[in-house]
Amino acid sequence: MEALAIHTENLSKVIKGKKIIDDLNLRVPRGSIYGFLGPNGSGKTTSMKMLLGLSAPTAGNIKINGQALNPATRAKFIGTIGGLIEEPPGYSQLTGVENLQVVQRLLKLPADNVYWALDKVGLIPNKDKKVGHYSLGMKQRLGIALAIVSKPKLLVLDEPINGLDPAGIDEIRQLFQELAHSGTTIMVSSHILAEVEKIASHFGVLKQGKLVFQGERGALIDSYANSLFVRTPDAESVAEIFVDSKIVRGGAVIPSVMNADINDVCQRLINAGVAIHEISRQQESLEDVFMAITAKAL
User: Fold this and answer.
1) How many Cα atoms sit within 13 Å of 89 on the Cβ side?
2) Residue partners of 218: CB distance under 8 A and separation at least 6
């Protein structure tokens, strides 16, 4: 059985009489980078707050690395879970290094952790600058530094690359990959799907508080990238056989063809005398797949 960093059972959250999270069953493998996706208002932030112990679930259970997380046990998880939710934290009147030293002293961490975290997020040159004078990107880096200063086993990050320029995004992407390679599990939510696509090994897609997909990246793409491209000089014939198909340059695209049906498609084209030069899957981006999943009615 696969070891899980996050395991929830029928997790639910009701706020002001409205069910925000509905029977959420997360399975996040240890050492993975888990892309947690969903439209605005789908419940991602609420879910992540519960995983960090910042909000108690209305119903259901949470296990972090095999141990139950609840109000009675939350204290023992401090230092093993790092988080960044919504606005990056930090005391504006303190410098970057002083902010990290506050956490280091509270958690009784080694002093070296402070400079390790600052170095990992590229803030060493600005460590003695007051956070009130930081740019948005620098504050975001500080938020990530605060999340990793304890060298946690699990990171839960909500929109961690907001405010970063392209070079900064690349640096943080490499940091996440490095941390995951060393054994840290990372759950990351972001609206910049192209960036999540580059790093995530597993995905969960939330819609209206319900998990509508969960699994490895290959399963996500294969399940929804189901169009077939037929390279042929007889594109009009393909369109006659498959009325939903679309004629494109070099051939035709047949939508909604599952793997089990590909042989049947080929046989029908051959029987009709269509000259087939190539048949291949359409390459669809994570954004295309995300839009397809979330467009479906629950």
Assistant:
1) 15
2) none
CATH entry 3.30.70 includes domain 226-282: yes
pLDDT tens-digit profile of 230-273? 999 999 999 999 998 989 999 999 987 877 889 999 999 999 99
| Cβ neighbours for 115, distance < 8 A, ≥ 6 positions apart | 97, 124, 127
Domain boundaries, the chain: 4-222, 226-282
Q: pTM of this prediction?
A: 0.83
**Which two tokens mark 178?**
């490095």
3-class SS of residue 119? helix
H helical segments located in the chain: 44-51, 74-77, 96-106, 112-120, 136-148, 166-181, 193-199, 217-224, 235-241, 262-271, 286-295
CA distance 222 to 135: 41
Is 226-282 the same fold as 4-222? no
3-state secondary structure of 137: helix
- State residue 91's pLDDT score: 93
CATH fold of 4-222 reads: Rossmann fold (3.40.50)
Which pLDDT value is given to residue 283? 65
DSSP type of residue 296: S
Average pLDDT score, the chain: 92
